[in-house]
Amino acid sequence: MRAFVQTEVGRFEERDLPPPRAGPGEVVLRVRAALTCGTDVKLLERAHPRITLPVTMGHEACGEIVEVGHGVERYEIGDRVVPGISGPCGACPECRRGFENLCAIGHADRTWGAFAEFLRVPAGVVAGNLHRAPPGLSDEIAAFLDPLASVVHGWSRLAPVQGTLLIYGAGALGLLWAATARARGVPVIVAARGGAGRLEAARRYGADVLDLERDAPHRPAERAEEPPAMAVDCTGDPEVWTLLPDLVASGGKVLLFGGCAPGTTVTWDAARLHYSEISLLGSFHYTPGDAREAMRMLAAGEVDPAPLLTERGTLSDLPRFLAAQARSEGIRYAVRPKLDSV
Ligand SMILES: [Zn+2]
Ligand SMILES: [Zn+2]
């Protein structure tokens, strides 16, 4: 099968690989659509301590089951599904405390390798984090399950939700935060640099917008009738992490959602955190329950990621799409393996 493989930091190539086979409890998908993601670019630029190279790239996909491993009963050949990334074990201390998103066992064998004609889904994912795409939902939109589930998880970290939310950054994730805020009736301000129609997309999702090319970042707190009670970082920029406690109201919450580069340290004003009771909350990945809620929202049309899809193409367009994504041109790109090559 044709597949795009990252061979080292900064390098990837198209290869001809043997298609994966389904082991016990696993399924194999024929990829119908896969999305580019900022994570793909990050991994390409700086690798990842837990991902050994070479690795087939891509992790957001909708596919059709073409092989079912021994012991799989809930799925059949022909089912159109979207896999979550991790398959939490349900039994470790993290899982038992409700932090299935942090299950080390679930992250040990992830769904990875969507920029290919076929994709193996690990047994842990098949057991609890594999989601049927309802009829009527397109392959590309269904593949937004993964980023949307991360946002659904972030909302659970902010609970109880009160007041206005300041969203810092307007990539796909920042815009999904805006889209879900509208679905929940939460007023939002999106602060970001313009370009690629990002701020226009934020406005279409009902957000107030602060264009950081023109306005200083302290403005959101001044512009709103009262400062936002919550802020979410969707940039992974440590300077933004330092800044956000100053932009929320006393008693406010800051959700650290965008991942910073490994080894990053962040400095905060201790007096601000202490005397103004600012809560700093981490958010990483999602649970199978978050993914189910994400699929429900997509199926119900509560969130429409279509404005985030800049261009559709085939696997051979991937190098061009990843280069554009790396230059922050466009928002998301979708690739389909060419049908005639299957
Ligand atoms: Zn992703
Ligand atoms: Zn576990």
Helical fraction equals 25-40%
Distance separating the two termini: 8 Å
The average pLDDT is 93
Our estimate of the beta-strand percent is 15-25%
Largest sheet: 7 strands, mixed
Q: What's the helix count?
A: 13
Low-confidence stretches: none
Radius of gyration: 20 Å
Please identify the oligomeric state: single chain
Q: What sort of overall outline do the alpha carbons produce when their principal axes are compared? A: globular
Q: Provide the list of bound ligands, each named once.
A: zinc ion
Number of strands: 16
Please state the structural category. Answer: alpha/beta
Order of helices and strands: EEEHEEEHHEHEHHEHEHEHEHEHEHEHE
State the main characteristics.
342 residues; alpha/beta; seven-stranded mixed sheet; six-stranded parallel sheet; 13 helices; 23% strand; globular
Q: Nutshell version of this structure?
A:
With 342 residues, this protein is of the alpha/beta class. It contains 13 helices and 16 strands.
Description:
With 342 residues, the protein is α/β, with parallel strands linked by helices. It is 31% helix and 23% strand. The chain is built from 13 helices and 16 strands. The protein has helices at residues 38-46, 93-96, 104-108, 123-128, 139-142, 145-158, 172-184, 198-204, 219-223, 238-247, 270-275, 288-300, 318-326; strands at residues 2-8, 11-16, 27-35, 55-56, 60-68, 80-83, 118-121, 130-132, 165-168, 188-192, 208-211, 230-233, 253-256, 279-282, 309-314, 332-336. Strands 3, 5, 6, 7, 8, 15 and 16 form a seven-stranded mixed sheet that branches. The protein has a six-stranded parallel sheet with strand order 11-10-9-12-13-14, sandwiched between helices. Strand 1 and strand 2 (11-16) form a beta hairpin. Helix 1 (38-46) crosses helix 13, helix 6 crosses helix 7 (172-184) and helix 6 packs across helix 12 (288-300). The longest helix is centred in the middle third of the chain and has 14 residues, at 145-158. The protein is globular and about 55 Å long. The mean pLDDT is 93. Bound molecules: zinc ion (ZN) (2 copies). One zinc ion (ZN) binds at residues 88-89, 92, 94-95, 103, 105-106.
